């Protein structure tokens, strides 16, 4: 028999992703990175465009990360909760030890690769694609959401493809994060559209 | 017979019912959830869900707040401190007995 607590965690995590809004939020945040990179490459030092590009990364991205959770919940109050139910998730306030440990391990691994391999830029793209791709794939497997497995696999393939294409650092980064963001945005957008169509607002909630 | 296995006979009957176990486990991982969500995830009928929630409320394990979202009535449920403790005890009893 499956542990009812594990089953409950899986159900809640699946519900968090039922409408695709989380993927849309991730996609929009990620797209700020290629926007910054494109802005930096297209503007000269000290120009207004360069300042705006830097602001996108220094102010826009942290603000988007900070606000995205609240915005997603606000949209859910409007669209998701009247259709399939209201949920307030529990926050335990502890730092995500697994996430921090993994990030640290990957950083050390990458520094080792960078210091021992000549073509470290290609490995950077592989890392960028495979690590979030594998995590997304595993999460999709855990919560039984096939679309997240597809997104994870495509993300990993895309990272490897950018590496094999032999792109330079900035060009490769711009291409990769543009593709990454677009992939999440597309997956989330299609999911949200299908969700809204499949779950009309009940008459009593209108 | 192991003592841990014997303790299974003293398990909390309020939580032990499969439907209520699902509800308590769901609420254990959440701050609160409304009736619509619990019905969707537990696959219970409205009547069944109501009666199980009432049983849990009577035992002091669940708090039920009837509020309004706009003009729409909303029943929001959350696990009380004693409900949380009861579920933890229930899980530990089974873990000890079944390894």
Walkthrough of the structure:
The complex is a heterodimer of chains A (206) and B (99). Chain A has 206 residues and is an all-alpha fold. Chain A has one domain (4-205). Helix content of chain A is 79%, strand content 1%. The longest helix of chain A has 32 residues, at 48-79. Chain A is globular. The termini of chain A are far apart. The mean pLDDT of chain A is 89. Chain B has a three-stranded antiparallel β-sheet with strand order 1-3-2. The mean pLDDT of chain B is 89. In chain B, 59% of the residues lie in helices and 21% in strands. Chain B has 99 residues and is α+β, with helices and mostly antiparallel strands. Chain B has helices spanning 3-6, 13-16, 18-28, 35-42, 46-58, 81-98; strands at 30-34, 62-69, 72-79. In chain B, strand 2 and strand 3 (72-79) form a beta hairpin. Chain B has a single domain (13-91), classed as Orthogonal Bundle (Arc Repressor Mutant, subunit A). Classes of the chains: A mainly alpha (206), B alpha+beta (99).
């Amino acid at each position: 028999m499956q542990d009812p607590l594990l089953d409950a965690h899986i159900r809640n995590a699946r519900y968090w992703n039922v409408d695709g809004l989380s993927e849309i939020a991730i996609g929009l945040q990620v797209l700020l990175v290629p926007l910054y990179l494109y802005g930096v490459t297209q503007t000269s030092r000290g120009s207004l465009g360069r300042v705006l590009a830097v602001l996108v990364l220094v102010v826009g991205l942290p603000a988007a990360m900070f606000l995205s959770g609240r915005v997603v919940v606000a949209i859910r109050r409007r669209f998701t909760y009247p259709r399939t139910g209201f949920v307030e998730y529990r926050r335990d306030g502890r730092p995500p030890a697994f996430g921090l440990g993994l990030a640290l391990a990957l950083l050390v691994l990458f520094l080792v690769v960078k210091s021992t391999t000549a073509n470290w830029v290609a490995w950077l793209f592989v890392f960028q694609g495979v690590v979030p791709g594998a995590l997304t794939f595993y999460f999709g497997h855990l919560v039984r959401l096939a679309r997240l497995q597809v997104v994870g696999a495509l993300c990993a393939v895309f990272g490897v493809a950018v590496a094999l294409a032999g792109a330079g650092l900035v060009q490769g980064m711009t291409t990769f994060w543009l593709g990454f963001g677009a992939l999440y945005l597309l997956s989330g957008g299609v999911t949200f559209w299908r969700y809204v169509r499949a779950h009309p607002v009940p008459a009593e909630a209108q | 017979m192991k003592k841990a296995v014997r303790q299974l006979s003293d398990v909390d009957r309020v939580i032990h019912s499969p439907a209520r176990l699902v509800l308590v486990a769901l609420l254990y991982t959440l701050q609160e959830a409304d009736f619509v969500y619990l019905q969707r995830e537990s696959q219970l009928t409205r009547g069944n869900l109501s009666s199980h929630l009432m049983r849990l409320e009577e035992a002091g394990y669940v708090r039920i707040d009837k509020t309004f979202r706009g003009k729409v009535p909303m029943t929001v449920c959350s696990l009380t401190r004693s409900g949380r403790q009861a579920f933890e005890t229930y899980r530990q009893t089974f873990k000890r007995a079944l390894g």
